[in-house]
């Protein structure tokens, strides 16, 4: 499953480094196990039931770790929750949701629904089919976006706290706790990946759900200004160049969204009048330039 996500490096793919994953990146370790337990069935009798139980317990522990992060309840040990691995874990959870997201939360006895009187059932068939559509399709997608939005906001806050976006090397705290087993180049690579991934994930989700991006405009310009070199002479350079193409596409998509859909009324007016065709013609050469720069060059 790691190949389906651009978040993690291949450092922890080596079994020799698993001890460091368990001892120094507890949130990332638990998140990887939680996601894996949902999509990989255990062999043998009762594998499905054991898989469900293990996933649920791991998700409960992930929630406890996230609560420790939110409330600043850091333990005085080498196992830290405020590190770059936690940022990666939060982004992973925004991509691969737990199973419980699609189930009602556990009742704590204080829900108003326990005392409210349910409305009388409606007899109109059209209304019931509409409600079923909202319940089966729209609401799960909305919950997914809401969860991702909050997780990415927490990841961005922690990134600022650790100095992920700082230019002054003396202010960097993201490497704390990794000395002795992760090289400086590897931790710098993880930092570069986190910068670009947060830019793409937050901006894409923001314009998809119609919210203002959490990343300041100045920070957007700073990240876009740090381009990868064209020479693939270091580990991870190929990934950085790929990520630059994704960032350029995200920037272009943001411009398209701002121009096509500034408001609902404006978008409706453009569709009725047919003026959107002129806007499409405006972006066609820009898309061709992106394709020539990032796709055709790769194929040569």
TrEMBL record:
One of its GO terms (cellular component) is nucleus. InterPro entries: AAA_Catabolism_Regulators. It comes from the Eukaryota. GO terms for molecular function: DNA-binding transcription factor activity, RNA polymerase II-specific. GO terms for biological process: aromatic amino acid family catabolic process; positive regulation of transcription by RNA polymerase II. PANTHER family: TRANSCRIPTIONAL ACTIVATOR ARO80-RELATED, ZN(II)2CYS6 TRANSCRIPTION FACTOR (EUROFUNG). This is C6 transcription factor, putative. It comes from Aspergillus oryzae (strain 3.042). The lineage of its organism: Eukaryota, Fungi, Dikarya, Ascomycota, Pezizomycotina.
């Amino acid at each position: 499953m790691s190949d389906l996500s651009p978040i993690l490096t291949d450092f922890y793919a080596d079994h020799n480094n698993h001890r460091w994953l368990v001892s120094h990146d507890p949130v990332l370790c638990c998140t990887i196990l939680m996601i894996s337990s949902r999509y990989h069935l255990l062999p043998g009798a009762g594998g499905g039931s054991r898989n469900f139980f293990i996933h649920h317990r791991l998700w409960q522990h992930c929630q406890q770790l996230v609560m420790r992060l939110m409330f600043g309840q850091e333990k005085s040990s080498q196992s830290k929750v405020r590190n770059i691995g936690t940022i990666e874990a939060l982004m992973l959870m925004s991509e691969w949701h737990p199973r419980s997201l699609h189930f009602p939360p556990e009742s704590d006895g204080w829900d108003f629904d326990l005392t409210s009187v349910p409305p009388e059932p409606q007899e109109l068939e059209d209304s019931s089919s509409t409600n079923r559509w909202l319940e089966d399709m729209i609401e799960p997608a909305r919950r997914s976006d809401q969860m991702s939005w909050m997780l990415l906001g927490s990841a961005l806050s922690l990134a600022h706290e650790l100095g992920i976006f700082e230019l002054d090397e003396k202010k960097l705290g993201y490497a704390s706790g990794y000395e002795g087993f992760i090289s400086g180049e590897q931790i710098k690579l993880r930092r570069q990946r986190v910068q670009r991934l947060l830019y793409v994930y937050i901006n894409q989700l923001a314009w998809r759900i119609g919210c203002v991006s959490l990343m300041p405009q100045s920070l957007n310009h700073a990240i876009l200004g740090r381009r990868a070199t064209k020479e693939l002479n270091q580990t991870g350079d190929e990934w950085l160049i790929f990520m630059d193409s994704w960032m350029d596409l995200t920037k272009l998509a943001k411009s398209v969204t701002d121009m096509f859909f500034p408001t609902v009324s404006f978008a409706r007016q453009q569709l009725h009048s047919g003026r959107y065709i002129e806007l499409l013609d405006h972006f066609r050469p820009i898309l061709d330039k992106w394709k020539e720069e990032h796709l055709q060059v790769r194929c040569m």
